[in-house]
Amino acid sequence: MRRRKKGRVTMNFPKELKYSRTHEWVRLQEDGTAYIGITDYAQDQLGDLVFVNLPSAGDSLQAGEPFADVESVKAVSDVNAPVSGKVKEVNEALSDAPEKMNEAPYDAWFVLAEDVTDTDGLMTAEEYEAFITEEG
Amino acid sequence: MELKRTPLYEAHLRCGGKMVEFGGFEMPVQYKTGVIREHMAVRTACGLFDVSHMGEVIMQGPGAVSDLNRLLTNDYTVMEDGQARYSPMCNEQGGTVDDLIVYRITGDKYFVVVNASNREKDVAWIKAHVSDSTAVEDVSDAYGQIALQGPFAERILLKLTAEENIPRKNYTALWDRDVGGVNCIVSRTGYTGSDGFELYTPAGETEKLWDLLLEAGEEEVIPCGLGARDTLRLEAGMPLYGHELSDTISPLTSGLGYFVKMDKADFIGKAALEAGGTPAQCRVGLKAVGKGIMREHQDVYAEGRKIGQTTSGTHCPYIGYPAAMAIIDREYSAVGTAVQVDVRGRMVDAEVVKLPFYKK
């Protein structure tokens, strides 16, 4: 358990998600689709996020390659696809409320991907927490 | 390269500052509060900034005024003790060496405050261009400087000093004043567009003053970093050297004609500025109409062709929209003109708006 800043409730690294080395999370679904977003660690490092540049439905995703970017007041940061596939759906609501990425990073999904492959490199919650502890 | 530290380095660590490199110094870009909260604090309450990295130079001698008038585009012949006056400093080509503020201490003694990133360059330039009777001394390391900015700045300062030690008028300063037991120059100036003060102290006492101000301000003041300093000055439409001014961007192009007194006998760059006539480009404010945040050095288009470039740009927390300043062809500078900005390969619609974006 880790105490979060800004008075938010202590949060786990959700166990049902998978994680990438570049701090994206993936919710793999039964039907081969997956929701993708950025982790709590990522939003904490980036600071107040004020903008998100999302791809379009139909765009292809390549594991490890940028597919979106987020902007804090001062900087732009690439978000990498944690898996390969195709964008099925884009979370347009996130464009209008970028602060959700900071407030609820595991609810603030960017895209729903389909035809998902290249999931082998993903970490479990435990592995990701250990990875961060080493990095930090 | 080893980075320099201001007298407030330890204070920044204590306050949770996130340290980055700026102008050769280790400075806080923000604290745990974050850029947005720090920016809003200045607009609605009060913020405290370390500006000790700025350079200070004392010019003294019977020829000091005429030297200032030759070095700078503004006119320094009519000033009162304690008065401050902003000016660009040009090179022979009419480009800008730096922009700075000059305080008159007495008729033949002046306190010149320069950008941190240009300190060495400015001192060398000034020394190379003054008359023999003018002494030029770089006193930057002797001073620390704290900016207290926001609507509550005056009432916080009143907790530490008597009313007579607080300048009433903007761009005036009072020398040798006791603020909470610390000897200060109290200047009613700032780089945020909100009301406030800049306090110069002996370097050895700056940390003490920082802590006193935080204590006196209680809940009403928070430390603010360079991130907020930049978003605030941009909202206020204030130029930043290296962006809206540079050795190839003249003060006239940058819309600072008010500070360029062409009827002075002579000053460095005058001939070039005269020969240049009305500049072909000028500085404008841009407001994003489409979705996107304009940043610096992005191409600006109108009617399908490139008309200039942004010089600064960011999401501005108080006004609540992405704003940029740009230098563009004069024909497109009318308020309301529709332009497009190339934001990393994507064209974002924007429109020319009046500067400043924010006025207190």
What does this structure look like?
- The complex is a heterodimer of chains A (136) and B (360).
- Chain A has 136 residues and is an alpha+beta fold.
- Chain A has one domain: OB fold (Dihydrolipoamide Acetyltransferase, E2P) (Beta Barrel), CATH 2.40.50.
- Chain A has 4 helices and 9 strands; from the N terminus they run E-E-E-H-E-E-E-E-E-H-H-E-H.
- In chain A, the strands form 2 sheets. Chain A has a 6-stranded antiparallel sheet. In chain A, strands 4-6-7 form a 3-stranded antiparallel sheet, with no helix packed on it.
- The longest helix of chain A has 11 residues, at 125-135.
- Mean pLDDT of chain A is 91; it is low at 1-10.
- Chain B is α+β, with helices and mostly antiparallel strands.
- Chain B folds into 2 domains: 1-279, Gyrase A, domain 2, CATH 3.30.1360; 280-353, Beta Barrel (Elongation Factor Tu (Ef-tu), domain 3).
- Chain B has 8 helices and 19 strands.
- Chain B has helices at 9-14, 35-44, 64-71, 119-129, 153-157, 206-217, 226-235, 270-276; strands at 18-22, 25-30, 47-50, 55-60, 84-90, 96-106, 109-114, 135-138, 143-149, 173-179, 182-187, 196-202, 222-223, 281-288, 299-302, 305-316, 321-329, 338-343, 346-353.
- In chain B, strands 10-11-12-9-3-13 form a 6-stranded mixed sheet. Chain B has a 6-stranded antiparallel β-barrel with strand order 14-17-16-15-18-19. In chain B, strands 5-6-7-4-8 form a 5-stranded antiparallel sheet, covered by helices on one side.
- The radius of gyration of chain B is 20 Å and the shape is globular.
- The mean pLDDT of chain B is 97.
- Classes of the chains: A alpha+beta (136), B alpha+beta (360).
